[in-house]
């Protein structure tokens, strides 16, 4: 096993489909199943927190305007392209 993760841990039991567990074991490698699952759960918690933040902001300020979002994406891409010294792809979202 690799270096222990920071923070307190507690042993628990979860049930996974056999195929899921086999896939995790194949991908986890030296980090181990517990570390792999911990990282996956942390990513999911972050996604849910972002979704909640967006829902709260939209409830307060109304829905996002897709045209404004697209314009800001282009401004960010242009900025990064200028600072990297190359051109950014402008046709992908």
Biggest sheet, open or closed, and with what strands and sense? none
User: What is the averaged pLDDT score?
Assistant: 88
How many angstroms separate the termini? 39 Å
Shape descriptor reads elongated
Main attributes of the structure:
93 residues; mainly alpha; elongated
Summarize it.
The chain has helices at 18-28, 32-61, 66-84. It is an all-alpha fold.
Task: Explain what this protein looks like in three dimensions.
It contains three helices and no strands. The two termini are 39 Å apart. The model has no long low-confidence stretch (mean pLDDT 88). Helix 1 (18-28) packs across helix 2. It is mainly α and 93 residues long.
Give the helix/strand layout.
Elements: H1 18-28, H2 32-61, H3 66-84
Helix pairs in contact: 1-2
């Amino acid at each position: 096993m690799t270096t222990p993760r920071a923070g307190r841990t507690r042993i628990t039991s979860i049930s996974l489909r056999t195929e899921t567990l086999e896939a995790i074991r194949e991908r986890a490698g030296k980090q181990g199943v517990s570390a792999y699952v911990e990282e996956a759960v942390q990513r999911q918690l972050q996604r849910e927190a972002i979704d909640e933040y967006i829902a709260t902001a939209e409830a307060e300020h109304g829905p996002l305007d897709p045209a404004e979002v697209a314009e800001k994406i282009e401004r960010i891409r242009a900025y990064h392209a200028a600072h990297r010294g190359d051109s950014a792809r402008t046709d992908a979202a």
